[in-house]
Amino acid sequence: MKPSLKSLLIAIVVMTPIFIVGCNLRKTASGSNGGSGSTTGPYTIGGTVSGLANGSTGLVLKNNATDTLTISGNGTFTFATAIVKGQGYNVSVATAPSNPTENCTVVNGNGVALSDVTAVQIACSTGTGNIIAGQVTGLLGTGLVLQDNGGDNLSVKANGGFNFATTVATGANYNVTVFVQPSNPAQTCTVANGSGAASGNVGAVVVTCSSGTLSLGGSVSGLAGTGLVLANTDGDTISISGNGNFQFAVLLVSGTTYDVTIKTQPSAPAQICTIANNTGTATANVSTLQIVCPAVFHTIGGEVVGLYIPTGQTPNMVLQNNGGDNLPITDNGAFTFVTQIAHGSAYDVSEFVPQNSQSQGCTIWDWSGVALSNVTNVTVDCGHNDWTWMNGPNTSNNDEKVSTPPIDHTKQDPDFPGGSKYSSSWTDSLGNLWLFTGSSHAAGHINVGAFLGEMWEYVGTQSYGGGPGNYWSKVVPATSLVRTPRWGAVTWTDAAGLWLFGGQDGGSGFLNDLWHFDPTTDTWTYVAGGVNLNGVYGTQGAAAANNFPGGRWGATARIDSAGTVWLFGGYGYANATSANTGLLNDLWKFSGGQWTWVSGTNIIDQNGVYGVEGTAAANNVPGGRQAPVSWIDNSDNFWVFGGFNLSPSGQPNAFNDLWKFSAGQWTWVSGAQVVNQTGNYGLQGVAAASNVPGARWNPAAWSDGSGNLWVFGGFGYDATGNGTLADLWEFKGGQWIWVKGASSVSQTGVYGVQPDPFVYPHFTSYPGSRWGAAYWVAPNGFWMWGGEGFDSVSGGGDHLLSDLWRYLPFP
What we know:
The chain is mainly beta. 0% of the residues lie in helices and 44% in strands. The protein contains no helices and 67 strands. Strands 38, 64, 65, 66 and 67 form a five-stranded antiparallel sheet that branches. Strands 50, 51, 52, 53 and 54 form a five-stranded antiparallel sheet that branches. Strands 59, 60, 61, 62 and 63 form a five-stranded antiparallel sheet that branches. A hairpin with a 3-residue loop joins strand 12 (144-148) and strand 13 (152-156). The radius of gyration is 39 Å and the shape is elongated.
């Protein structure tokens, strides 16, 4: 972009009662623009209007966006409101003239008032194109003729604004030249900003006239910044926008001395330029001035995030810039290459040697560009502690997408399940994700309460980068056996396949039916159970063929390394003596094809017995609750967190207590005995004994390879209130860590780059707040799909989602 030129203006004749002296003075004060007035102000703002057609109406000018003035014809104008000394003015056309319609532009319309301003020019034309206009300074003689595009001639009689009669179409070129130089006295006039393509009205053409005949100029080299201004002793200045030759506008009379200095050094980047051959006496054209600006160099750097280096392992990652500048990386955090590069040079950062533990490799963001300042935004994202948008839309309440083959396998498969909450999920032995939809959206079924019971499979979790090999497919069971559609069931996977137990059907029935699905044959098999049945508890601690948990919704279950399934709580039916449904706190295990009532009560709506925090006891037991989450750690202990119950007044209540069942006893590990507790987040990424998530229900939950417990989102309490959550927590070494996400509710998702065909892990990507999502532990981290909450744009938080996310933790 070309820099603007300061206007060169003519002073006014100074008069006394005795004599009159006419003189031409070059104004050096910014914004004087001609005019007179006191030395303290206030000063008036005005100028001239030209080109208005006879009878034209509707032209309205505006100064500083507040003072308006209606113009009725050509001639001088003055705004009614004067401004104080030193205040800026900015004249614009508020309303163009009509009857006839005309196009007007402003020349010399802004500056700082140091006296009355009279040199603002409003140039108007009835042409349909763009006006070519400007100003003339230094004119003493007569006969000056300007020309545009080699044919449109314009006679100029005095200093001030001018505009050509012929307009120029948008995008067309203009080229203003001096056709006839002035005489009497003879002068030489030069044109600045005189050519280009008209993208709108042009008002920056400057014609400078001088009585001299000798040019003064030279060359500039090494310029990288902007704002370089040179000045001669006669007051003439020139702004330099690039390297190469330059010439002052004012010509010198033979024998005139000159002394050129650097008035303003360049900035962005800053440079201290030097000048040589800058003084002398002009007896011929001067072209020997030399401006030399020192070379500017910039550093190239950024940040490494997500790099995992196991204890005892030597870091060996090496980054490289421009194919040769190597930089060893020893840890996460900021980095800067040793070798700086010249201003305007290109940089290209790559991962030359990967960390030997980093099987996924790293994604580099903002890796290339042109260095115009120090570069600090290169991000080497090694995938740990990152959410990645893997599949599905970033909007909510979508029907399912089922394509008709053939599918273009060079792109990501477009299929995905309709939005759903509290679906059932499994990971099979190959790492594929299976989904049995809960309360769903599907083609032709847009009501939130539709229980469709559709089976989907997502393959390709082993591929860190995603691509055509990662896709959803809708599974049509090989048998006609009908599985009751449901939500709020529990699931587990063993060597025999996928298992489904309980939940609630579309008719408000509470289920305790047990089903088996064989993913190799896509076959469902009914095992036992039904709807609205009480539990058969038998003797606590004793397995029996007739034992069976009652129908229930919102229980939680996990399978341990020995293949034993542990099931806790939910809402539904207890023993046969209770005809009512309620909150359950019974713990069951399923092993060898039989159920065993292990702990808790066989009646509904029981309060917890907490005992001493951190101490196991035979009497300890969590209270009745629905929609908690659970884990199995590496020692096969069963853990339960959170959930929802109903107070006597019927108001919702949420837990944030953490329990462990080990060696036949419950231990209250963390959290509060009372409900509806807000979270204590502490410092993100830092464990502390005082940290604890807020009370919540229906979050997503995972356990990692080290047996640590993870929780995301749910519905409940942040640091101050309640709503739909998007915080990620880890329980590690007996303490909670707020790992990622906002400490407040109602967060929209940050999806990043559309996964097509590959995915793009980025440390700023993040799922929106949600509850009732499906979740898996699978190759390359934790996976989460759907739920009810916030997409990339919605603010209500009550929408059903179809987006699939992956989180890769440390390590």
